[in-house]
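Pipeline run #58 for the internal structure catalog. This entry was flagged by the ingest filter as a single-chain record with no existing model, so it goes straight to prediction. Upstream metadata was stripped on purpose; only the residue string is passed forward. Reviewer on rotation: M.T. Logging verbosity set to normal.
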Amino acid sequence: MVKFWSTLETSVLVVIRRGAPVGWKMWLALLMLLAALLTMALATLMASPADARAWPQISVSPQAVSPGTSVSTTGSGFPKRAKGNLFFGGKVVATFITSRKGHFSTQWMVPEGASSGKVVAKVSSRQASAALEVRTTPPPPPPPGRQQLWSDPATWNNQVPEEGYTVTIPADKTVLLDASPPALKSLQVDGTLIFEDKDLELKADWVVVHGKLQIGTEEAPFTKQAKITLTGNDPNQNVMSMGAKVLGVMGGTLDIHGEQRSGWTRLNATSNKGSNKLTLEDASGWRVGDRIAVASTD
């Protein structure tokens, strides 16, 4: 642009310094010259590279990962056909070459030991960044033995969780669920939660297990009724990318063992309409309070 206006200024001075009569033809010529120079200036501006006007940006997918996971990163608005570097945690994790339109796409691996931060793409003096969440695997829960009761205030620093509480069981703690708690906002199990062998119900918007949630064992199956009721209904909540109503196991263990019982049987005698009694072939293991469904037969 500086060269243009210098050329324009020189041309005007040449016309004026020649001292020629300034008639209408001269003014017309001068206007035509100015129009030509303006056209050239606009053409040069329009011909400037698109990457000189675009705003660089990048995106990562997935946005939440664990160490050792592959991440896809794409970007646009960078200088065209140029070499760039991708940084995470202050280190170069990938290199790339932009396309003729200033775009790029590359895959890279999240290093072990990495933590959440920004992914930065840099090409020459241009750069852009995007956030990346790195989920670290919690340490394995301690073996059962030092169990603490859910109902004991000492387990919760003298405050047993109440309705609407957000509860986390730490990785170094084993809690025995000995009573049905009030409806919780959420429950995150980083340590161990064990259901006592009694009728229990656990209510929460969502439950996420990073440690261990145990209901019965193979050697001692659970013989009572255990209910886990999910109550989440917030459409704007997305717990670890799984929605608002979640029983999720992320790097942990959900261990459930119920007693072995027959799930179905046949009628041993016809049951007429209105009858309040059924005669069955085998009802071993069935208990008072169990719910049954009667289906029709051909």
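catalog note: The CA atoms of residues 34 and 85 lie 45 Å apart.
catalog note: Residues 1-20, 47-52 have pLDDT under 50 and may be disordered.
status: ready for reviewer M.T.
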